What does this fold into?
Amino acid sequence: MDYYLIALIMFAGAFLQGITGFGSGLVAVPLLSLLLPITMLTPMLSLINVALAVYLAWLLRHYLAVRRWVPLFTAGVLGTLAGNYALAHLPLTTLQLGMAVFVISAGLLFWFGVQLKLAAGTPQQSGVGLLSGFANGALTLGGPPVVLFLTANRLGRSEFRATLAVFFLALGLTNVISFGLQGRYASIDAIALAVLTLGALLGAYGGHQLSGKLSERAFRRLTLILVIGAGVMVIANVASQ
It folds into this structure.
């Protein structure tokens, strides 16, 4: 196994996440799946995602407002569990396409300056948390809905990234516990896991350092490109099946 290559791929994905607060999977999953079996990759990336989220939350700890977003985090966990169940029992192609069309459309509206406003009360946070959690558990597409929601609430860059870090930490821990109960960590390649973790932490640090040098406009444009790109990738994946 080419450990240098998988470390480089993980570095690139985590670098992107260090800048925007999300998006490592857009780079890492398609490329790493060519080098590692998906049955091994998915549980390992769940552990990596937890490590990334903890690290970024620590770097951004002064911008955390956990109490403000408790309904979002709680609903995200419940949605992830529901998504895990749906993945095992329901056909998801139609849902994948619907979610992809939604995130592409919303991303384009933001891109062209259409002002969408959504209150951050408990009902709204719970709805978005359930949607993002479900998309994470069933479709591995949990980022775009919550990113669009936080973008609509005009969070500052650092609070935006800090909130995403805690949200993905909650979802990641849910996945790790679920995989652990399924015994999916019994046959993990410990060296590959260590190499991926090192690449992820170095990439996240580099991306975090660069993020502060981007203008607010460039930061928002980059996040919207990632959201729209996620939707396009899902449609391409469904079309190829």
The chain has ten helices and no strands. The mean pLDDT is 86. The first helix runs from residue 3 to 20.
